[in-house]
Amino acid sequence: MKSFLQKYKWTIIYWLVFSAIVLYFAPRQHDYYLEGDIKNFKSTYLVPFLLGTGVALSLMSLIFVLKKTKSIRQAGVAFLSVGVTAAFYLFIFQDLFLGASLFINRQIKRNSIQRIYVVNYLAGTDKTKDNFFPYDLLTKHSSSDRKLINKLYNQALKQNDTVILQFNKGLFGIAYQTKPFVDE
User: Fold this and answer.
1) Bridge partners of 135?
2) How much is the CA Rg of the chain, to the nearest whole Å?
3) What percent of the chain has pLDDT over 90?
């Protein structure tokens, strides 16, 4: 057993660290952000960045192999193989890149913002958390984000009351809370 641990200690450490990042660190970053902000960041910045990275890696391999071998066929094969491999790894590990981006965003606070919500309940229903839908005055949409509802809901709130939440904007301009949202 001791010889096994000595032989594979770096592999074991690698997999323990990788598992901790995948199973604990990356998913916990979502707790500080509203789902709409995460989706917006992902579609606006993260996916185009990953696509650009894949294309850049593929083009660099094409140019490198073309210069080295002067063969269009080998350069095309290298381009395709690097492109497929890059696409596989970048999109398989997309959630890791997202978690890292959200973590980095929180490390540098650029400014603070306030979001104003108007209390809305479904018409003709009890004023419970299940019937509570805050209306964002900035985006002009009602939110069904459970984290936001859990943060804002209070039994004393009445229809059309106004609630203000303080957010920080991080390095990438994504609004976040300093303490994680409670997602019940």
Assistant:
1) 118, 142
2) 23
3) 24
Instruction: Indicate the pTM of the whole model.
Output: 0.80
Q: What is the pLDDT of residue 112?
A: 93
Q: How many CB atoms lie within 10 A of CB 93?
A: 15
Report helix, strand or coil for 166: strand
CB-based burial of residue 87 (10 Å sphere; 0-12 exposed, 13-18 middle, 19+ buried)?
Answer: middle
Compute, in degrees rounded to 10, the torsion defined by CA atoms 114, 115, 119, 123: 170
130-134 mean pLDDT = 86
Amino acid (one-letter) located at 150: N
Say which DSSP state 182 is in: P
Q: How far apart are CA 137 and CA 119, in angstroms?
A: 11
Q: 139 and 86 in contact (C-beta within 8 Å)?
A: no
How far apart are the C-alpha atoms of 119 and 135, rounded to whole Å?
Answer: 6
- d(C-alpha 78, C-alpha 70), whole Å: 13
Instruction: Look at residue 139 and give its three-state secondary structure.
Output: coil
Domains contained in the chain, CATH given: 2-106 (no CATH), 111-176 (2.40.50)
| pLDDT at residue 39, rounded to an integer | 92
Look at residues 145, 163, 110, 160 and name the one whose alpha carbon lies nearest to residue 31: 145
For residues 107-119, give the mean pLDDT: 91
